[in-house]
Amino acid sequence: MSDPVVVxxxxxxxxxxxxxxxxxxGLLRGLRELGGQPVELVASRHLGAGPDPLAAWGFPVRxxxxxxxxxxxAWDRGLAPVRRAGLVHSVSLAAPPVRPAHxxxxxxxxxxxxxLAWRAYPEATTARGxxxxxxxxxxxxxxxxxxxxxSDVVADALVAAGADRARVRAIAHGVDHxxxxxxxxxxxxxxxxxxAEGYLLSVATLEPRKNLRRLVAAFELARPSLPEAWPLLVVxxxxxxxxxxxxxxxxxxxAAGPVDDGVLAGLYARARAFAYVPLDEGFxxxxxxAMACGAPVVVSTTVPSTASGEGAGMLEAALxxxxxxxxxxxxxxVRASSDEPLRASLVAGGRALVAPLTWRASARAHVExxxxxx
Length: 374
Known about the structure:
Blueprint: E1 5-8, H1 18-34, E2 39-43, E3 61-63, H2 68-76, E4 87-90, E5 108-112, H3 117-120, H4 127-143, E6 146-149, H5 152-160, E7 168-170, H6 183-193, E8 200-203, H7 212-222, E9 232-235, E10 253-257, H8 261-270, E11 273-276, H9 285-292, E12 297-300, E13 319-321, H10 326-338, H11 340-354, H12 359-373
Parallel strand pairs: 1-2, 1-4, 2-3, 4-5, 5-6, 6-7, 8-9, 8-11, 9-10, 11-12, 12-13
């Protein structure tokens, strides 16, 4: 296509970009490595001091005159369309309207749908959030020419919601985005938090869907059976609602807040075990990050990204548990952090699972899908 692909990267203007933001950054990284595909970015007005951080990726940025809340509201109402594009790709359901690239044809719209969690677990989403997601999904089903999803699980859910199977392409995320571990920075953080070398780790945006309340309950149940009184370190920004960490500190749970990627890699590498047990997930990047850094992983059966590590002839990549069973999570925490032969096997299986998952490969699959759709 002669006109550029315009990536709607508004998620990267959010206070907490979350997993969608991680995907958006990974896609931009992969596209930059690939080269050859003309790409421009569209987002709301940059309000911070200094240069626009989106420009650091080397792609032209179409910054709206509108700030983030107003631009999203405008897109919801079919206003502020993207013009002069061969194809528009939105990294989330917050998708812009499009206008024809030239008089004889229109720009195709591709939308990434990360999950339909608000339907599976409505209690883990605000009423306002459910209404917005339902409206945005209906709009995407009507307006989008094609979809990208991170897993076959989400593809099935999207088809059940009304999408044409032929318009849906499952493309796995990459996991090669973490820098070399900042071991010194991780050590300083642990000392500041009063955490010794041994600890269990969880990484997530703190919100109800991440099921931290049950994870904390499982940790409290497991702790007497651990070889040492290791704490549970929880890393991540606060999202919304009840995060389930009101007893942090009193029960050996330490909330660290958000950390930069180098420190995060250092924390993964030093953890006795990593746990991620969300109620629902479209893909699941944190457990893959942990595997890439050599941590044994406990993950819920709702996380598609680790399911491909199952099967005959393959090393087990993670201990998979039902997210609603506190006793099962507790048993897995003990085994993953204490059983040395099992830990070694999980680490080997995890590294094998993540080896082919690069953002370059993910970006290449996106470009191939764009060429097919456009």
